[in-house]
């Protein structure tokens, strides 16, 4: 019998001449149907030509003939991944590695599977093992960096992205990953730079246009983000992920008609795409608990093949629609399912970490602190809006931002970034808050100026000479008011306060893109609320500057009086525009983006009463001794 033309088949494959390779392979298989190497080549050809089911069948036959072939295990594992059979793929790859632990393609395929399954620790370990023998492999550095980024090890991730780019500075994937890292750090400007570099080397520029749009959104440049998304859609008109991001940007800009139209178009063209249906449901207020939209969502969330994060997002939206239509028990069930699923998927709670941080801050700042920086009475006045999520802070920012002398920055981590860098500035490994006592005035001055420069450059009117005040609405800055008082004695602190029951319930009902893990539990949120309230009482007592409490319920009952007090506190003259804040065209990217473009309404007051029978645990925690009643706010009893 003449030898099989395996080398000739391989030559065709190397030249990517798939029809010729398959024709030759098929002819030989008719004569030798159980030839292991031939079956292996045939399986690889079918993978390359996207005939995955046929490839799997041939590779299973190949494995029967070559039970110790690492190559067959690798190819079969890959094709099972392509067939969306991750459990089978994992079993095959593990079995192959047990026979040949040094086979790099097998280990890389397993690490890729673990990344896809978000088992980051396992993926990181396998990528590190691969790099120990392939330190000059840029793709492995990039894949490891991706996993480290998702694992929140940003520092080590950056090192490996830089190593990947040092080995191949034309890798679109590495530039994109580095941009994603800066997005995770909330550094939109630097993320955009990386995306722009990667775009030059990409065969799919629309994906980079989408990421550029997200980077611009991160920095509050909504109109520029819209332009980037539209550019991406010019290249890929039916790219659903870009359409969704464009719709969200249009919503942030206040163009609700265009937003709704885009979601309606998406539902028409992609009826099974959950984010289009979710987006449309968020735009259309529901009055009928049995509406077609609600029924479609109720059916879709039951689908067993739905991606879990998409299911969670839709459950939040379903809860909102049922709440609007006064079906409160059904609404609570939907919210409860959303939170339980997210709680189970995100790992251990971080409640104790957050409460421990508050306790350390209270211990270290339990007496008045010295001012470290002179009063910048002739400079821009920072307006720090602090408090808990869902307490009315976006309304406060929109009212202030309607004043012609006020610019807004939204939620920017400028203060947190300064404190993260503080140990390095001080030459110590001791982190905040413990390192703060070592800060000297000559070190504090440049920190304060750096913040003021960042505040000015990131606001929505950076070059307007008439601006005298700029808001910073990162609510968790309530943790850092001791630092703020020391660095910015000319600042004004505005504390957003709402009934604790409504605040905690509204947090539980909100699908935050960024948030703490404890927020998926009403009881844990209540415990955190108590710790937050204790800290705010301390700040009221020890800070050398006043704190102005804006009570949400008072604002909606008597807005004219409360707005007048607010403007007087920050040192601004009355302006009628502040009473017409809903006409302000500035972008709003928080969960309240639609609400703040309406006149002040009262239907969110005492919302908790609609759900009272579900809130026994929450109320018990909030009303225990040392209740979290805040200054100038009625008790939660």
TrEMBL record:
Pfam families tied to this protein: Sulfotransfer_3, TPR_16, TPR_19
Keyword hit for Transferase: yes
PROSITE patterns in alphabetical order: TPR
Organism from which the protein derives: Magnetococcus marinus (strain ATCC BAA-1437 / JCM 17883 / MC-1)
Keyword Transferase carried by entry: yes
TPR repeats: 206-239
Assigned keywords, A-Z: TPR repeat, Transferase
Protein name listed in UniProt: Sulfotransferase
Membrane spanning stretches: none
InterPro entries: P-loop_NTPase (IPR027417), TPR-like_helical_dom_sf (IPR011990), TPR_rpt (IPR019734), TPST-like (IPR026634)
GO molecular function: protein-tyrosine sulfotransferase activity
Gene3D superfamilies for this protein: P-loop containing nucleotide triphosphate hydrolases, Tetratricopeptide repeat domain
